[in-house]
Specification:
The complex is a heterodimer of chains A (150) and B (290).
Chain A: E1 12-17, H1 21-30, E2 39-44, H2 52-60, E3 65-70, H3 81-99, E4 106-110, H4 116-132, H5 144-149
Chain B: E1 8-14, E2 21-26, H1 49-52, E3 68-72, H2 74-85, E4 94-98, E5 105-106, E6 118-119, H3 121-124, E7 136-137, H4 151-158, H5 161-172, H6 180-184, H7 209-221, H8 232-236, H9 244-258
Parallel strand pairs in B: 1-3, 3-4, 4-7
Antiparallel strand pairs in B: 1-2, 5-6
The chains are: A alpha/beta (150), B alpha/beta (290).
Amino acid sequence: MTKSNATAEPTIVAFLCNWCSYAGADLAGVSRLQYPANVRVIRVPCSGRVDPLYIIKALQEGADGVLVAGCHPGDCHYISGNLVARRKFAMLRSFLEYAGIEPERVQFSWVSASEGGRFASLIEKVVADVKKLKTGKKMAGESRSASLAR
Amino acid sequence: MTGGSVDCIIGFENGSLPRTARPCFVRNAKDAERLVWNQWCVANLAAFVPKLFEKPQKPRKDYKTPRVGIVAKGCDGRSIAGLVKEQQVPRASITIIGMPCNGMKTAPKGEKNNVAGELARTCIECVSPAVMHADIAIEGESRKPAKAAYPRVREFEKKSVAERWRIFTEEISRCIRCNACREACPNCYCKVCFADQRKPSWVSPAAQVSDTMAYHLGRMFHQAGRCVECDACVNACPMGIDLRLFTQKLASDARELFGCVPGVTGEDVPPLNAFKQDDSESFMTDPEER
């Protein structure tokens, strides 16, 4: 576990659902809205597709924070994927917080395809929250390149 | 068995060491003499059930679903209810023999003079010592069910985030990745565990703390809404890791967030497979509008 410099730029991994939140992020880009460049986007078909293991793996690979965004309840392209995800993430966040991973690191939100501004605000908030945390990457293991070099 | 209603009974026999009992499989009436029932019958026998009911990979015409009898205490009964719910065993093929359970003891490791043994923590806090829905209920008095309070969880929650992380790291770094917890758990019946998958590789077998943490966070979270708090994992662990501190959090959350006590409340699907329109969103981030 490395304690990296807390003021260095954090890396946020964002899992965005293809139909709503990814489109919302696209809209933010097309509208030339400025938001922090710390986010790495991974497009998934639905927020319900996001396995808790993705979040744990992202933290292990060195992400400072993880964001999962999906369609608003009732608007899921697959009808109920986001509703199942909602329960899953409620428990996951509670469990990770209990084990000592700050809740600011793992955040969830709804962003619709028309909410470019909301997406930009969301990224600003997540990056600001993670920057405020005292310690750096949680659970980061030795990177692959380092272990191959060894 | 002589009546021909079951092919195999899973029960306990005397262990090779004093103050231990070990699981045994009785396949004919004569062997039934080996069966014992005492306060050392700690193991969760439901762990053997999914394997017995695994169908052959290529369908065979002569395959018959086995009929199994199982000697069950409260926690075993909850596990079996969970397995039936997840369709790992047909209810009609398993005969639950409900035993009166007054709590099981473990002889603490290394304490040769402690002959009496200690009542297991999970038994003291057990909410359903008597098997619900037993097919054959053996006469006898069981412990009174405890009230679910989770004092250790509440106490742990009061600590700071940094302190919780420190304790978690310290406990988990003792893990030698022997997978005993996985083998002992009735709910861990996946043919290929996520920890053994390559392509993608979630957790490497490397001896890094980060991989060990990922393994435990993943394995425990896979029990979310399913864990019956039998402590089979805790008893199986050769390093004495305090897994109960974390598995209880899952049980407490399932109760609080979704009103579910696995194996007791008897819903048709596990809580994480279901949803309600008004599930809480208090954990979500709502950014300010621009």
